[in-house]
Write a structure and sequence with these properties.
The structure is a homodimer.
Chain A lengths: L10 H6 L6 H9 L4 E4 L4 E3 L7 E7 L2 E6 L5 E7 L4 E2 L1 H6 L5 E4 L3 E7 H10 L1 H27 L2 H20 L5 E3 L4 H8 L3 H13 L3 E4 L2 E4 L2 H8 L10
Antiparallel strand pairs in A: 1-8, 2-7, 3-6, 3-8, 4-5, 4-7, 9-11, 10-11
The structure holds a DNA duplex.
DNA sequence: CGGGTGCTTGAGCTGTATCAACGTCTGTGG
DNA sequence: CCACAGACGTTGATACAGCTCAAGCACCCG
C-alpha cells in the first residue's frame, strides 16, 4: 500500500475538501473532529428508542444503519464508511427510526445540533458541503433502491461490493479493487435483501469464476470489467471524478 | 371535503411552518413559490442526461423520480407529492443520476442554487428547515429500502399506499384514508420492485378482501387497522405528530 | 476440549416472474 | 358515428430464483 501524503488527511476533510476556501473554514472543518472516541464492534451509536441529541462523524472503521422488524428480521439500510455522518437524520428530525451500530473497531467524533447550526451561520460554503453530503447519501440510497428493486442477487451483490470499493477509495485513496472487509456474509445478505444461505452461494459462484477472492479479511475484486458489466455499475452517483 | 383555512395554505409552507418565526422568514419562504409553472403529465422536470442548474418545488399534483436501466426496465425511486423538492440532489451535486417526471398535471416553482444558498445566509432557521426536509427524504427512502428488502409484495404494496395517504394528509390536511390516485398499476409495480401482472393480483386480492377500493381515480383504504397490521406500518419516519 | 460464530451444502418448496391472451375504456380520425 | 389504436387492467399456465429447513464443517477463543 503506497501511502501518499493525501492518505494522512482525515477522511471527512478529504471528503469535504472542495468546500473549504479560507483558513477559518479549514479550522472549522477540523473542529468537527477534535474530540474523538473509540468504539468496539457491536456497540450502538444511535437508536430508534431514544430521542437523538448527538450524531457522529465516522473517522475509522465500518458501521451500519439498520432497522429491525417485528418478526426479528433485520434490514441494513447502509454501510457507513470513514467520512460519513452517523445519525445525522436523528438530530435533524429529533428522532430516527433506525439504529446505527459499529461493525468493526471504530473512531468517531461527536456532532451536536448547535455546532451544526453555528457552522451554517459561519460558513455558507461549508453549509453547502454538508448539504452536498446529505445529497450524496440520498443518491446512494436511490441507487440501493434500484439495486434491490430491479437486479437479481448476483448483480446486486457485485454492485454493492464495487460501490464499497469506490467509496473507500474516495475517502482513503486506497485501491478500489482491494479493501478490508470486516463484515459477515449475513450482514451482506441483510443489506441486499436476500438470505445468508443464498448470499453464500452467490459469493461462492463469484469466487469459482475467479471474479473476486478473499484473503483473510481482505476482499479483492479481480476482474473489474466483468464485474462492472454484471452489475451494470456506473459510478456517477458517488460523485467521483 | 371540509376545507378549513389551513387547507388554503401552500403545501410547502405548511410543510415547513415549524421553521418560520419572523415575518421576514415567512416572506422568504413564500418567495420560493412566487414564479409558478404548469406542467403536463409525462413532462420531464430533471434528467440524468444534462447537468442540473435548477430544481423545483412541487405545489400541486404528483411526480416521480426514477431510473431507467440498460435493459429498458424502470425503477421508481419515489413518488413526489406537493411540498416536496424535485431534483434538489441535482443542483447540490451538480448532476443527478435519475430522472424526474410529472405523473399528473402539476404546478411547480423554480429553485436555483444561489437562491438556496442565500437562504442559508439570511435565515439559519429556514436552513434548518431545508436540512430537515432532506433528512425526511432520507428517512422515507430508508423505509422504502426496508420495504422492498424485507416485505413480500402484499405488505410492500399496503405500506406504500398507507404512506402516500399520510404524506398527503400532512401537506393538504386531507383524509389519510382517501386520496386521488393518479398513477397506474404499472407505476406502482415499478416503485415496489414487482411486475405489473403481480401488482394486479395483489390489488385484486386487497379489493376482494374489502381492505381497499377504487372509485374512479380515488383510492379508499377501508380497513386501516388491518392494513396497518399487514404492512407493519409505523408512521414515525414521516415525522407526523 | 467444548461451545459459539460464521461458512457451506443439499433437498424440497413457494412467491413471483414470464409468456401469452383477452377485455375494456377512451380518444381520434375518417 | 363508427372503426380503430393504444393504454390499461385482467387472467391463466408454466417456469424458476431464491427461500426454508436441516445438517455438518471449520475455526477461534476461553
Amino acid at each position: 500500500m503506497n501511502k501518499g501524503s493525501l492518505d494522512r488527511r482525515d477522511a471527512f476533510e478529504r471528503k469535504l475538501h472542495r468546500f473549504v476556501s479560507t483558513e477559518a473554514e479549514r479550522a472549522l472543518l477540523q473542529s468537527f473532529s477534535s474530540v474523538r472516541r473509540r468504539i468496539a464492534p457491536g456497540e450502538e451509536l444511535a437508536s430508534a428508542d431514544r430521542p437523538s441529541k448527538i450524531a457522529y462523524l465516522l473517522h475509522e472503521g465500518w458501521a451500519c444503519a439498520y432497522k429491525v422488524l417485528p418478526d426479528g428480521s433485520r434490514h441494513i439500510i447502509d454501510f457507513r464508511l470513514p467520512g460519513d455522518f452517523l445519525g445525522l437524520v436523528g438530530i435533524l428530525m429529533g428522532k430516527q427510526e433506525y439504529d446505527v451500530t459499529a461493525l468493526s473497531n471504530v473512531v468517531v467524533s461527536e456532532v451536536n445540533t448547535s455546532r451544526l447550526i453555528s457552522t451554517f451561520r459561519e460558513s455558507p460554503l461549508l453549509a453547502e458541503g454538508i448539504l452536498w453530503s446529505l445529497s450524496r447519501d440520498i443518491a446512494i440510497m436511490a441507487e440501493h433502491l434500484v439495486n434491490i428493486g430491479r437486479r437479481d442477487a448476483l448483480a446486486r451483490t457485485v454492485h454493492l461490493l464495487i460501490e464499497l470499493g469506490y467509496r473507500l477509495n474516495q475517502v482513503q485513496g486506497s485501491d478500489p479493487t482491494t479493501y478490508e472487509f470486516p463484515i459477515t456474509q449475513k450482514d451482506l445478505a441483510e443489506a441486499l435483501g436476500i438470505t445468508h444461505v443464498h448470499m453464500n452461494r452467490v459469493l461462492r459462484y463469484l469466487r469459482n469464476q475467479r471474479l473476486l477472492s478473499f484473503n483473510g479479511n481482505t476482499i479483492v475484486l479481480n476482474d473489474m470489467p466483468t464485474l462492472m458489466r454484471i452489475a451494470d455499475f456506473e459510478p456517477g452517483y458517488l460523485d467521483s471524478r
